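Running log. JK asked me to keep both predictions on one page so they can be read side by side. First protein, sequence followed by its tokens:
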Amino acid sequence: MNMDEVVKTLFKEIKAVDKPANRTNYQRFFKEKLEHPVGLRTPIVRGVSNKVFKTVKSRDKDEILDICDQLLASGRRYTRFVAFEWAQKLEKQYTRKDFARFERWLNKYVNDWASCDQFCGVLGSLLATFPDLSPKRSKWTASKNMWFRRASAVALIVPVTRGLLLKDVFKTAEILMTDEEDLVQKGYGWMLKVAGDYFFDDLHKFVMKHKNRMPRTALRYAIEKWPAVKRKQAMKKD
């Protein structure tokens, strides 16, 4: 199958499972009004994604990513999900030059927290393979686009789970500390929480130093897994 045929096959498979019992209302997960709030449940889309991926997985990585480009350009929520799923499956084949493509995806196709976080799984895997690319990501902390700022933090979750880029985690949190968007605050708070799973002492020191400045939203995320006594200490303003 050529690229167009792959996309048509995906659409055909989606149509076959697009039944009322397989749909859900995504609006309940978002504060912003969605253009198309009703869609297929994630397990249903993932099943189709895995089925169609089997027909292309033997192809060259760049060819598959080109198909992902076409899926993203279609503008549908489920094709965006599939594109990011397929890109994630290619993790072991990533090269440094893929950063430019992924950054373009973030700019053109990420417009809510769900797509941002799924995308960050892709980018995070790239950063875990090539940690020297992290300075490119760090520039996003100054972006006017809130999804770039959220991604600058969430993309560090995969690397820090592999013992990488801890300094970048804390540097990013400092830059985003008082960001006006709560979804950015939640993003870097989540990043800190995960970092604490692997570097608790470092996180504890960071939080206790910045707890008076850190917004409550981010702070609650960061200390969610702490023992009750330590959480109480962190929440208490000096």
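And the second, directly underneath as requested:
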Amino acid sequence: MKRILLDTHALIWWLNGDNQLGANAIEHIANPENDIYVSAATVWEMSIKQQMGKLVVPEDIESKVEQAGFSELPITLFHGQQAGRLHLHHRDPFDRMLIAQAQAEGLQILTKDEQFPAYGIRLINASH
């Protein structure tokens, strides 16, 4: 069993059936033995991008996540503190939060982001 945190693009690709999500990534997400998490930071990022006109987010994103069998990952004060203490390899605050959450909760991140390896966290490539 793996505990996997989806990066924002991975969640979007999964929900949209996008072929950018690789076969290995699909296997990890679809495996019922794995626990898949979606961070509150991901939905926050998606909502901001929707407001900017860069993304269309389902109105019922919470139920879509639930229907997919994914678990919500709230942002705690500890997560916030840890995100602020990370080295500045990555400047995106949403990605920094995901990295901090993965470190704090012992999660692997499913992502295509090339800057994540600098943090020494366990990753699953989203596009392979």
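Observation for JK regarding the second prediction: The two ends are 20 Å apart (CA to CA).
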